[in-house]
Amino acid sequence: xxxxxxxxxxxxxxxxxxxxxxxxxxxxxxxxxxxxxxxxxxxxxxxxxxxxxxxxxxxxxxxxxxxxxxxxxxxxxxxxxxxxxxxxxxxxxxxxxxxxxxxxxxxxxxxxxxxxxxxxxxxxxxxxxxxxxxxxxxxxxxxxxxxxxxxxxxxxxxxxxxxxxxxxxxxxxxxxxxxxxxxxxxxxxxxxxxxxxxxxxxxxxxxxxxxxxxxxxxxxxxxxxxxxxxxxxxxxxxxxxxxxxxxxxxxxxxxxxxxxxxxxxxxxxxxxxxxxxxxxxxxxxxxxxxxxxxxxxxxxxxxxxxxxxxxxxxxxx
Length: 317
Prior knowledge:
Elements: H1 15-28, E1 35-39, E2 42-46, H2 48-54, H3 56-63, E3 73-75, H4 81-93, H5 103-113, H6 116-128, H7 135-144, H8 148-160, H9 162-165, H10 169-172, H11 176-183, H12 194-206, H13 208-211, H14 215-219, H15 229-236, H16 240-243, H17 246-260
Helix pairs in contact: 2-3, 4-5, 5-6, 6-8, 7-8
């Protein structure tokens, strides 16, 4: 009997949750609370040990020699009472209610109080809301609050959806430096350079007097040699902003030379002649043949794809 009664450590699945529920009930009834957080003249009773266990901010406050260490009341600045209530609910229940309406207040507050779980939840929520109309704003918001993963996700989204992104107000309101950073990127996914050129012109036209002088600096990041000769002559050549700028004309002449003098293309290789990342392309070939020549020295050329691929196929009888 003793041989089959060996000691065993057993962990229950409900213990931690049960403790949290009990602590939350004690908080709501103001039982055994030893500190009151005051936000916008509203009081929030709480337990120091719970706050310190969940937040490095409160841990430092209650364990160091700060003046708040022994005070029964602690004033919290920089957040609203409604946000404080959401954060305390998370501390005691491990659940946070994130919405479009509160996330812009919730994330900075979570950063202030060093509540990593809330910060992560806000970042995941914002990533799920990425859209061509808001991805640039979310990227800046993420950068401000040092949310690296969210910032990278927003950047990738803006690159992947560049033609749609530049149609929205967030793009038009970018600074010159921010526009440069976006359009110089190799990872922009476009079928051609046309939307890049048109985005630059739209940005300049939005505030002509202030931005017209920025056009030559921006245009150097548009890969005009990769545009078709017809687009260069029919669209770019007729654009008044281009015709009025000698520097812009030089860039257009470079693009024309690339097409008119193909023997010089090797010497002209540079950032403006390098293709950007093409959109994902899938090609499926399906069919059958009644007859197949087993060996033929004949080769047929195909158009260039977005990248090099070596594939093998087999003829099946």
